[in-house]
């Protein structure tokens, strides 16, 4: 009985013409998309990485005095201003805001302070979230944010200052909503005849 003849291997299927060109285009498209995403989102990620602290913990201080135009001197000698707010250009409006700040935090007042991140050596007053603890409490721990008042938010809500649109700030979106509410209700700087004069540079 004769052995069957060995079968020849099937010839390799030739690649279709241009298949390598298709793969090259796909790879180029992915590289282009990746480069675009990196250039678009990396600056935002990079800036957040280097401007936000790993933890936002505050510290208690006692107010020692007021520092013009809109800042407080603390018991450790540092001078802080409410972060996220801009001092009005109009002198009378600035005086009203300063008077209100002195009413909210006169000398001897306990405040809870979150210092904003600083890039480089500080120039002048340090930007900070300045919280007023609930009345009648002696430096409670943990700090009761839900019962406390944020000084910058009070000034904005009463229309005494505007939000500083050029500076990053933890509660910026909240302050912008309060400013919009003050504008719609015509409080302080947003009253008739005051807005244009007070906000002019």
Q: Helix count, per DSSP?
A: 5
Average the pLDDT over all residues and give the rounded result. Answer: 82
- Helix/strand-derived category reads alpha+beta
Detail the poorly predicted runs. Answer: 44-55, 195-201
Number of domains: 1
CATH topology: OB fold (Dihydrolipoamide Acetyltransferase, E2P)
Number of DSSP strands? 8
What's the level 1 CATH class? Mainly Beta
What order do the strands of the largest sheet run in, or round the barrel if closed?
1-2-3-6-5
Helix content: 25-40%
**Termini Cα gap:** 109 Å
How much strand content do the residues show?
Answer: 15-25%
Radius of gyration: 30 Å
Q: Could you say which overall geometry the principal axes of the C-alpha atoms support?
A: elongated
Largest sheet: 5 strands, mixed, barrel
SSE string, helices as H and strands as E: HEEEEHEEEHEHH
User: What is the CATH architecture term?
Assistant: Beta Barrel
């Amino acid at each position: 009985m004769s052995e069957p003849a060995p079968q020849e291997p099937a010839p390799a299927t030739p690649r279709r013409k241009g298949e390598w060109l298709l793969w090259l285009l796909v790879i180029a498209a992915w590289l282009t998309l990746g480069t675009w995403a990196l250039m678009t989102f990396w600056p935002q990620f990079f800036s957040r990485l280097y401007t936000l602290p790993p933890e936002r913990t505050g510290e208690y201080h006692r107010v020692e005095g007021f520092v013009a135009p809109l800042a407080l001197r603390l018991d450790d000698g540092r001078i802080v201003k409410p972060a996220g707010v801009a001092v009005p250009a109009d002198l009378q409006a600035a005086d009203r805001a300063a008077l209100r700040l002195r009413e909210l935090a006169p000398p001897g007042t306990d405040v809870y302070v979150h210092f904003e991140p600083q890039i480089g050596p500080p120039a002048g007053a340090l930007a900070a979230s300045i919280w007023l603890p609930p009345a009648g409490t002696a430096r409670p721990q943990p700090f009761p944010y839900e019962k406390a008042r944020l000084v910058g938010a009070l000034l904005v809500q009463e229309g005494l200052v505007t939000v500083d649109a050029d500076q990053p700030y933890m509660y910026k979106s909240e302050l912008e909503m309060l400013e919009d509410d003050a504008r719609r209700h015509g409080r302080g700087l947003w009253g008739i005849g005051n807005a244009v004069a007070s906000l002019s540079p």
